[in-house]
Amino acid sequence: MVEVSPRDGLQNEDVLLSTDDKVALISSLAAAGLRRIEATSFVHPKRVPQMADAEAVAARLPRGQVSWIGLVLNERGLDRAIAAGLDEVNVVVVATDTFSTRNQGVTTAEGIAAWQRIAVRAKDAGLRTTVTIAAAFGCPFEGEVPVSRVREVVAGCLQARPDELALADTIGVGVPAQVRALAGVAASEAPGVPLRWHFHNTRNTGYANALTAAELAGDSPVALDSSAGGIGGCPFAPDATGNIATEDLLYLLGRSGYDVGVDVSALLPVARRLGDQLGHEVPGQLSRAGLFPLGSAVR
Which residues form the Pyruvate carboxyltransferase domain (predicted)? Predict the structure, then answer.
């Protein structure tokens, strides 16, 4: 499990939480047992003001049991992540030129080249690396993204071998058939590289996709991104709301027989508190419906 609410969750919210509130959220997530947390992103504060206090948040992260992840888009972001003492960096390469240009100001090929430079420097600094192929399931501007295009982008990124390859349904259009197809791409183009998936539930397919990814993994390592309360989305993708909610996903996995190792009951008040802080009801449903059987603990 990779918890992304402090970053991908908050970056798309109109309300800017204080550094104190962010640290409290992060501490609650860690206390529930989440051990990989995307704490912030090192991007330009004018572009994403919700992440303007990245260094202040990083300085207050409890060290030890959790691997802290920072999103970076360029070498300047990497410099900041290294200085802040992060454990991992997540670098985004967008699968389509139109979205890549609007989101990061570079073409996909330029994004791949930037990733390759960042990967070398991050490894030299002792940071674990993830490359995320964004819009792998569909683009808000170009529409369908052919599997062949994703294959091409993955092959380019694998020239600088990451510690993890992530495939992202940035706008929440994917279905399980696409998960199976892209898992095949990863198996052929990145054999032996641990796989990570980032799903949104914009069209109510995120949980089906996540369960499909878990089932396809078998005994191989796989990571699933999720956001407490289901908050967030990409601020540069029109209508791209709806990360899958951590507590809802953990309930699904736990009831399906997976050992998730997280105290789901501890996350329910976290989701409710986020709703109060952000001024709207969170998309996740478990914080309202509760566990089943009543009073049970799913881990």
Answer: 1-268
Nearest to 32 by CA among 179, 229, 244: 229
Model pLDDT for residues 243-258, shown as the tens digit of each residue: 999 999 999 999 999 9
* Mean pLDDT within 44-49: 92
Residue with tokens 């407490």: 228
**What are 158's two structure tokens?**
């694998």
Per the listing, tokens 């888009």 go with 73
Handedness of CA 103, 104, 109, 113 (dihedral sign): negative
Neighbours of 219 (CB within 10 A): 5
Global model pTM greater than 0.90: yes
One-letter amino acid of 245: A
Positions annotated as catalytic residues are 234
Q: How many CB atoms lie within 10 A of CB 218?
A: 7
Does residue 88 have a pLDDT over 70? yes
Q: Per the structure, how many domains does the chain have?
A: 1
Domain residue limits at 130 = 2-289
| 260 part of a folded domain | yes
Q: Both tokens of residue 8?
A: 């991908």
Reference 285, options 235, 242, 256; nearest CA is: 242
> Does some domain include residue 89?
yes
Distance of alpha carbon 139 from alpha carbon 21, whole angstroms: 33
Residues 6+ apart with CB under 8 A from 282: 229, 230, 231, 245, 271, 272, 274, 275
Looking at the domain assignment, is residue 295 inside a domain? no
Alpha helix stretches (DSSP H) within the chain? 19-31, 54-59, 75-83, 97-104, 108-124, 147-157, 176-189, 206-217, 246-255, 264-278, 286-289
HSE at residue 6, side-chain half, CA atoms within 13 A, is 33
CA distance 148 to 267: 39
Render pLDDT for 186-240 as a digit per residue (tens, 0 to 9): 999 999 999 999 999 999 999 999 999 999 999 898 999 999 999 987 666 666 6
Residue 259: CATH number of its domain: 3.20.20.70
